[in-house]
Amino acid sequence: MMLTLVGLSEGMLEDAARRATGVGADILIRAPGTSLISMSSASLSEKYLSFFLEQPHVKLAVGTVEQPTGGVNTVTGLDLAEFNAMSGGFKFLAGRPFQSDREVIVDEYYARQNNLSVGSTLNLLNLEWRVCGIVEPGKLARVVVQRRVLQDLTGSTGKLSRIFLKLDDPANTDKVLAALKEKLPDFPMYSMAELTSLYSVSNVPGLSAFIGVIIAVSIIVGFLVVFLSMYTAVLERTREVGILKALGASPFYILNIIFRETAILAIAGSVLGIMLTYGSRWAVMVFAPAALTQKIVPDWWPIAGAIAFAGAMLGAFYPAWKAAGQDAIEALSYE
Amino acid sequence: MNNGEIVIRVRNLRKVYHVGDVDVHALRGVDLDVERGEFVSIVGPSGSGKSTLFHILGGLTPPTDGEVYIHGHNLRELSEAGRTELRRREVGFVFQKYNLLPTLSAADNIAIARHIARRNGPEDPRFQQVLELLGIRHRLHHKPRALSGGEQQRVAIARAIVNNPSILLADEPTGNLDTENSNIVLGLLRDLNERLGQTILMITHNPEAAAYGHRIVRMRDGRIQDE
């Protein structure tokens, strides 16, 4: 559970970073007071597009509008001509670009998750949209409509959520960034390298705490499961403990057996847990590829293993102690 | 094969169990000597104190009063750890219900007794002789559930003597066996005693089984009635 949830957290952040960098920009700019992770309303004037284009070394500027559509899903509005110039354009797996206002382009994952094909109807923002194209995932967004249409629908005509800048040479990024920050000190701006590092668990408000809670719950659940399992196992094997004592086994010998069994169970459970994360990733890819992205997190394997081991040992301690102290005669007469 | 050396010496042995507010006098002054190489049958009705005597001699429970020496060790002076060591080195148990560990093969059931006694070196050549005598060599890799009652009891006997104990305590070893298997097991106990000089104390209700011993000790109401 822990590995799956951590994998989902990291996977979704990485996917967001990958899609942002897939735009092909060198710099990202947000409106003052908005958050990188949470969806903010479009509050950046379109006029800034021409302002940024006038800056030295800035070759292209793309403005996007993001609108939440429920859960973690969003619809993104963009000017396809601007976007194509910067990113090289979407790679269409089926269909074509927009030809009318009520058309939507979705990526392959979103189409698969929602059983969409070109010509299908999709309800977004309480309106019916026709799927005109299905594209390869990894560029900006999963659901894309025309920027002007989305601005009008959301009452943000002439407003943008984010602006991406492409420079004449990526080597100029730091220089341009410094100059822009001087001119617009309240605007959050990032190079794409910075952006990638910002899409991390520690930069998402509450996510570290959430993972901490998950770890705590895992320890408590693991402890209770192992405690009850070992307690039941020891109870069922009372007679066997009696036999061992009759053969001359010391309390330490019995403790040692139970702890070794517990250790083997904990290690086997950890390996099984790691294997199950591959299973859950497969399930995510099959059933919710657009909504969720799960990463396999080898860095967490030793942590999860250590937590499972410690929880199991803690859970086995009392049953083991009880077994070691059992009266041999009572244990031998146990039915 | 008696040679006059006393392996078990019991003097005025008393055991009182406290059951709630009631004191149950299980043994009320038992005196008994057993020489090395003797085969002693202990008979008596239920509640006569046979099993309590068995448990004290095996170091499973301490006496309330009196003296018990097993191969020179005074049980009253032994701590719990000391009695554990006694069970490991000096005593082998055979139970009515065999008490084999169900998840282990016959061979592993025997091996675990060696492991507990920390005898992980090469097997005692005497033990090969025992395996031949017990006739279980070909059944050693079977789990207890795949063995007949008689075979299970023979494995239990092998386990009891694998560490070459001073005494073998058998509590109703034929209680769960049919006549044929009972005779086999009793014959094996007698062979162990006669050929290898194993000292054996056997509790039984069965007069025919008791007759296999060199002498019969009769118990009643926590005392030895006669020998």
Describe this structure in words.
- The complex is a heterodimer of chains A (335) and B (227).
- Chain A has 335 residues and is an alpha+beta fold.
- Chain A folds into two domains: 18-198, no CATH class; 207-332, no CATH class.
- Helix content of chain A is 51%, strand content 19%.
- Chain A has helices at residues 2-21, 47-53, 80-87, 108-113, 147-153, 173-183, 192-198, 207-236, 238-246, 251-287, 301-324, 328-332, and strands at residues 27-30, 44-45, 58-70, 73-78, 92-95, 103-107, 121-124, 127-135, 143-146, 159-160, 162-167, 189-191.
- In chain A, the strands form two sheets. In chain A, strands 1, 3, 4, 5, 6, 7, 8, 9, 11 and 12 form a ten-stranded mixed beta sheet that branches. Chain A has a two-stranded antiparallel ribbon with strand order 2-10.
- In chain A, a hairpin with a 2-residue loop joins β3 and β4 (73-78).
- The radius of gyration of chain A is 28 Å and the shape is elongated.
- Chain A starts with a helix and ends with a helix.
- Chain B has one domain: Rossmann fold, CATH 3.40.50.300.
- The radius of gyration of chain B is 17 Å and the shape is globular.
- Chain B has helices spanning 50-57, 80-89, 106-116, 125-134, 149-161, 179-196, 207-210; strands spanning 6-19, 22-35, 39-43, 65-70, 73-74, 91-94, 167-171, 199-204, 215-220, 223-226.
- In chain B, strands 6-7-8-3-9-10 form a six-stranded mixed beta sheet. Chain B has a four-stranded antiparallel beta sheet with strand order 2-1-4-5, with helices on one face.
- By secondary structure, chain B is of the alpha/beta class.
- In chain B, α4 (125-134) packs antiparallel against α5 and α5 (149-161) runs parallel beside α6 (179-196).
- Chains A and B meet through α9 and α12 of A and α2 and α3 of B.
